[in-house]
Amino acid sequence: MPDQPLHAPVRDLIGLLESIGAREERLVHLQRTPARPARHSDWPTWADPDLVAACARLGIARPWTHQTEAAESLHAGRHTVISTGTGSGKSLAAWLPALSDNLTAQGGPDDVPGTGTARARISAVGRRPTTLYLSPTKALAADQDACLTRLVAELEAVQREAGAPAGSLRTVRTATCDGDTPLAERDWARARADIVLTNPDFLHFSLLPGHERWTRFLRSLRYIVVDECHAYRGILGAHVALVVRRLLRLARRLAPDSPGPAVLCASATAAEPALTAARLIGVAPEAVTAVTDDAAPAGERILALWQPALRDPRTVWEGPASPGVEAPDPAADASASNGSGPAGPGALDLAEDPEQRRSAVVEAAELLVDLLSAGARALVFVRSRRSAEVVAERARRTLELRLPSLVDTVAAYRGGYLPEERRALESDLRRGRLRALATTNALELGIDVTGLDAVIIAGWPGTRVSLGQQAGRAGRAGDRGVAVLIASDNPLDAYLVHHPEAVFAAPEATVFDPANPYVLAPHLCAAASEAPLREADIALFGLEDESLLTDLVARGALRRRPAGWYWNASLPGRPQDLTALRGDGPPEVPVVEAATGAVVGTVDGAAADSTVHPGAVYIHQGRCYVVDELSEEAAIVTEKAAVGYRTRSCATSSVRIIAERETRQWADGIRWSFGSVEVTSRVTGYMRLALPGMEVVSRHQLDMAEHILPTAAVWWTAPEAAVEAAGIAPCDMPGALHAAEHASISMLPLLATCDRWDIGGLSIAVHSQTGAPTVFVHDGHAGGAGFAERGFRAGRQWLETTLAVVEGCGCATGCPSCVQSPKCGNNNEPLSKTGAIALLRLLTRAAPDPAAE
């Protein structure tokens, strides 16, 4: 197909949404943010004039004021965070000082004013300065590399046109290094690159343990750029913070006479950016300069809050019941429970409710077709890999009937695709060959895609920061942008779509805890293997004392010597391999086609038991496979032309209390606790669900391994007498606890920066350790990620919001918008909505007023 124009004639998208949304009260709220003009400033006096001219050739005549402010701070050697909106050009704040310093070191024009300071600093280092760019995704790093390549090409063109001989052109050498990079290109980067673009995984597993081969680059390291740093939250944020600290430590060791690298953190608009950046770097907040005044121009922004159409009673299944039904996330499988929880894989048993609305995924696919028919280019953000496939497949099927010429302009984009597939999709979207992608949050980050008219977000993306990032993908470069947030069938989405004030409140702070001992200990081992740990490193890694190091010595991981702590090199393997940055579970499992041996895709190792177990149906770009065999090495699959069913795993779990760290005694004997627990889970079998109705046609047992997750949890217990006094009969207690647990799990993400699959839970009428009715809500990561603790601290607010959602739902006996969970490991049985209301009322009455505590 030839390249398509980036923009097509677009009818009034607002009018289209209002017309469609008027049917069945789908359009609940329309939020308009007015356009704003740009505010420019002059180029810094130290900016290289050839670089300034190159920027002008790319359309950047003058920088926006926030770009200049951040660039000035970084150039002065201060750690800096720039926290502004999507499309606000944050990367220029990094590249301006990085490239200017590098060009000056090559003998910049003598008439450049104000370069004395930069030259003195570079002369003191005595080397051509280098920059390391850290991206959360390979795609974003590749995109930035392409942007830099264009800028450097213009830089060289400026010099040629000025008469500079070809052999004397000043240039900047860039390289991308990640797991896909061939060894020869890595060797070139080590020897020649001025700027290396990479990700935390490559830094942790390759660059830092092999730092001797990177000595030239690290000794000259002047700047570190941590892009999209708001993405580093929860357990991933803790890991990345420690990786960055290890990098800073090595750079300072290799260049002891240098002040060390200055770090620029680029973030979406978020709360407390200086505090977040300081925690990431390992410095005090006052050591970070925060730039938050966004001076970029912005077109009018329109965000529609949308509830799906009513479900056709003649159709039972229309696709996944919510965007996260089959999300292959580590927490989802590590926290499966036998009575509960969105974090547990299982079956969805919908209540018979004539007012039940369609799934957000199906609604998104149909709305996408409407937008494409109007000439728009769009992204659809979904919550799981499977949902991305469903949206793309359903949209293509509808377009075959309505607009066959557009069928091949829609595709899915998600994790698990091979690198060459991802690169081709990104290129096709930029060039207009694709007019729409259904994607997971892999495209949420700042990849440069112009000409997008609309964004559809199928289900609350977890945080207001993510909502802003995803919605901001529409209308970049000052154009008007239209975004639609479609509510999924769950309590949180149902609450938000009818409470715009909660959606448009101030962005959350980014939550992560580098002091988590389950995260910190292996990073200390890795750091010790890279260079012996000294007492001066204790503060850098956030240690209050030497106790954790002493414990690692006692366990044989470290050896104490007068010069510091050393890694015990007699142990097998590398300490870096003790840590999985994106989840403390097994590595990704390749999905291999039996007939050809070709790798079809990959799945997260922690999700393999529930998604690619023997007998599971696996879908990749619309092609259907059935899993023949699963091992630690691979899932072996066979492609099937037609499979008339889908599969869903079933699991059980239990929770054991290890240590009660804090407890609060509430009224009526309610005990509210937080502490360490062990969650034991196991996939026990799967069901085949016939298409199209998704009726269960058979159940199959599986003999899968048991998994134990040490983590943190908040839990509460209630005396049986108090529960009965609240009007809950003993026979209804399991259903009341179970329903209250589901609703509580669904609402915690409103208070903590987590997604629903970051947490799990369990409810039980009599727990063996508490001896009373108990509900647990736990983090889905080893050692905890801070989410359960946030729920513990905000107990009353959490419970009151949960009660409001359940009471406000119009269903009679419970539905996905209040107490049902699409991933309940116990098939949503038993559930008692009335019992949950009574129980939550009991809890909210018993909870103390936070102001009085």
Features:
853 residues, alpha/beta, Rossmann fold, 3 domains, seven-stranded mixed β-sheet, seven-stranded parallel β-sheet, 27 helices
User: Portion of residues in helices?
Assistant: 25-40%
Give the N-to-C terminal Cα separation.
66 Å
Which percent band covers the strand fraction? Answer: 15-25%
Q: What's the main sheet like?
A: 7 strands, mixed
CATH class of the largest domain: Alpha Beta
Find the CATH superfamily of the largest domain: P-loop containing nucleotide triphosphate hydrolases
Give a description of the structure.
The termini are far apart. This protein folds into three domains: 173 residues, Rossmann fold; 243 residues, P-loop containing nucleotide triphosphate hydrolases (Rossmann fold); 204 residues, no CATH class. Helix 16 links the parallel strand 13 and strand 14. The chain is built from 27 helices and 27 strands. It is globular, with a radius of gyration of 27 Å. About 8% of the residues have low confidence. The longest helix has 24 residues. The strands form five sheets. The protein has a seven-stranded mixed beta sheet, sandwiched between helices. Strands 4-5-3-6-7-2-8 form a seven-stranded parallel beta sheet, sandwiched between helices. The chain is α/β, with parallel strands linked by helices and 853 residues long. Helix 2 crosses helix 6, helix 13 crosses helix 14 and helix 26 runs antiparallel to helix 27.
